[in-house]
Amino acid sequence: RKIALYLGRRDFVDHLDSVDVVDGVIKVDPSDLNGRKVFVYLACAFRYGSDELDVIGLSFRRDIWVQRVQVYPPTGESINKTPMQESLLKKAGEQGYPFSFQMPTNLPCSVSLQPGPNDAGKACGVDFEVKGYIANEADNADEVIEKKDTCRLMIRKIQFAPANNKAGPKADITKQFMMSDKPVHLEASLEKEIYYHGETITVKVKINNETTKVVKKIKVSVEQLTNVVLYSSDTYVKAVCSEEFGETVNASSTLEKSFQITPLLANNKEKRGLSVDGRLKDEDTHLASTTLSQGEKEMQGIIVSYKVKVNLMVAGGG
Q1: Per-position DSSP letters for the chain, written without gaps between them
Q2: Residue 317 confidence (pLDDT)
Q3: pLDDT at residue 169 in the model
Q4: Among residues 239, 243, 285, which one has the least CA distance to residue 265?
Q5: Over pLDDT 70: what percentage of the chain?
Q6: What is the spatial distance between Cα 267 and Cα 279, in angstroms, rounded to a whole number?
């Protein structure tokens, strides 16, 4: 091969105020370049589906952010090599050239939309790709770059939950019924703001039923909200966990009780379009993590959040 990419890791962490530098090395054999140059780019893209469909002239990737650097011939810019690059250069030998990219803080994380049971090809979603290529110009749409003159590695941009776990949210509603002068009051609260993958969520429910009707059932669910921001902004809502509890609250009485539910990807494998954390190969993943942002800059791509809902089924009475 004329070029080969070396990266010390595939996961890069977004700390909200900064993102880990993507630092790598590309090995270049200059003997066969015929005056062409070697470039490396890092691209964050939204993938609509399978590459195989590209033959009909439709592009199924939309770049959200791209940065390119020329690595050969060297431009003379001095690069402060990271310890990781020093060790990669030992592997690559004299033909190794370091490169690094600094991603901005307003890019989405690696997320896939779960394909349906009969869907073929690659999943839709946001991915990050480091690609080395041999070309005359860095970015000329008319220049055909052959597959043998490229090498690529997928990486992931990930976030970790912040350490400070604040008190959980609380919401309440008062509902008046026709033919009834008194309401049902419902309050729901969570004990904390952050839950980890696979963790049980305890929802504390308080009901004050002042009506003559009976609360027959309580339904507690968790919904995933996926906001796809590309040309426009579209939000998809999917229940990832929903349970009904046969608790009754008679007329003019109250209930205070905690209910537990556990949202798991394992129970949602058939749901098409559900957001899951990005993966590099066919390893196991889980429901996509909530997208954390500092909120100043508009983010493109896929933004994920979750909502807990409590519904009361009310029946009968005058």
Answers
A1: --EEEEES-SEEEB-SS-B--EEEEEEE-GGG-TT-EEEEEEEEEEE-S-GGGGGGT---EEEEEEEEEEEES--S------HHHHHHHHHHGGGEEEEEE---TTPPP-EEEPPPTT--SSPPEEEEEEEEEEESSSS-TT----GGGEEEEEEEEE----S--PBPPEEEEEEE-TT-SSEEEEEEEESBS---TTPPEEEEEEEEE-SSSEEEEEEEEEEEEEEEESSSEEEEEEEEEEEEE---B-TTEEEEEEEEE---GGGGTT-TT-EEE--SSS----BPPPPP--SSSPP-EEEEEEEEEEEEEEE---
A2: 56
A3: 92
A4: 285
A5: 91
A6: 19
Name residue 95's amino acid.
Answer: Q
CA dihedral 208, 172, 202, 259 (to 10 degrees): 30
pLDDT category of residue 43 using cuts at 50, 70 and 90: very high
pLDDT number for residue 50: 56
User: How many residues are present in the chain?
Assistant: 318
For residue 53, pLDDT beyond 60: no
CA–CA separation, 63 vs 99, rounded Å? 20
Task: Give the pLDDT band (50/70/90) at residue 49.
Answer: low
Nearest 5 degrees, angle CA 284-CA 290-CA 292?
125
Q: Indicate the Cα dihedral angle 187, 193, 198, 200, nearest 10°.
A: -30
Confidence at residue 61, expressed as pLDDT on a 0 to 100 scale: 77
- 175-204 average pLDDT score: 91
Q: Which of 134, 93, 111 is nearest to 6 (CA)?
A: 93
| 93-123: pLDDT as tens digits | 889 999 999 999 889 999 988 877 776 666 7
Q: Are strands 150-158 and 11-13 parallel, antiparallel or unpaired?
A: parallel
